[in-house]
Amino acid sequence: MRLVALAGGVGASKLLLGLYHVMTPRDLTVVVNTGDDIELHGLSISPDLDIVTYTLAGVVNPETGWGIRGDTFHLLRALERYGREGWFNLGDADLATHIHRTALLRSGKTLSQVTDSIRQALHVEARILPMSDQPVRTTIVSDRGVQHFQEYLVKDRAEPVVKEIVFEGIAEARPAPGVLESLAEADAIVICPSNPLISIGPILAVPGVRPALEARAAKVVAVCPIVGGRSLKGPSDRMLAQLRMEVSARAVARLYAGLAATYVIDSEDEWQKPEIEGLGMKVAVTSTVMRTDEDKVRLARQIVEWAAAL
Ligand code: FO1
To answer: Is the distance from the beta carbon of residue 50 to the nearest atom of ligand 1 less than 6 Å?
Structure first.
């Protein structure tokens, strides 16, 4: 079964690791958010692409879900001595990825080509596609002004009160090579349990992607990232609340109505099932919290089964 997954970073990568283990890896294509990408110290950094690649390669730092296991931070500390900002924790081995990416981009390669080069070097067999080769920057408008998403999330620890989310450059962006084709040809499509606003939102906003997904909605399984009114990972819950949306499985379901045939919610939220079904989706109820590798494989197996039944 050829499966395409739409993914952000840490939240998605847990499920992706499960899928990678229960499927033939080459049959998995991951379309990754690049709205979080940032330039720091003259380097092009693609956090979500790296999180997905490092996770599937088995080298990700298991404590954080980002960066490389056992990495050191000598270069960043040395940069700080020159007065450079060290709030974004770039490890020494991680920096090799960013230097490689930046050099290839400067030599004229596209982000898709660079991503594939990193994937191959780390022996990842699944296909990893950036949502777009054109730069899109997720910008947060908050009570502290206008910030890059990483400044809001990491530097300011998601403390600013979000008023608006803007995807700069989105109108000029085009789906990266293979994105529309893989969506059209997939036997099933999974929307990973990522932040619907700043991880899945930018992917859907790339011109052409939402209609392509709508056309395949009968084959889409969306996994809810909210359990019991809280996000599984990251600031989805506070962002939803600050943007005056309910923090619930059913509120995220409203964002995915018309895009997914099956919506996966946690057992804790089963009481919302009838209302979500009213939006025209089949609701699958299971434990969606992935603490261990066994949890990841179990949920992935169930999703593959539901996807095969579509
Ligand atoms: N997240 C943090 O909370 N703090 C960091 O210092 C940090 C550094 C970092 C470096 C490389 C990388 O690929 C990711 C990194 N992340 C860090 C994760 C990242 O900010 C977000 O989790 C994603 O962009 C959201 O999906």
So the answer is: yes
Q: What order of strands is seen across the sheet that includes strand 28-32?
A: 127-130, 28-32, 3-7, 188-191, 220-223, 262-266, 282-286
CA of residue 214 to ligand 1 center, whole Å: 31
Q: Which of 26, 37, 241, 232 is nearest to 127 (CA)?
A: 26
pLDDT of amino acid 233: 82
Low-confidence ranges of the chain (pLDDT < 50): none
Q: Which residues contact 259 (CB under 8 A, 6 or more apart)?
A: 191, 204, 210, 213, 214, 217, 220, 222
Q: According to the model, what pLDDT value does residue 232 have?
A: 83
What pLDDT does residue 234 have? Answer: 87
Interhelix angle 10-22/47-57, nearest 10 degrees: 30
Distance (Å) from CA 81 to ligand 1 centroid: 22
CATH class as words, domain 3-135+172-309: alpha beta
**Would you state the pLDDT for residue 253?**
98
Q: What is the pTM of this model?
A: 0.98
Q: Residue ranges of the domains in the chain? A: 3-135+172-309, 137-171
Q: Are 71 and 93 in contact (CB under 8 A)?
A: yes
In short, whether 153's Cβ falls inside 6 Å of ligand 1 is yes
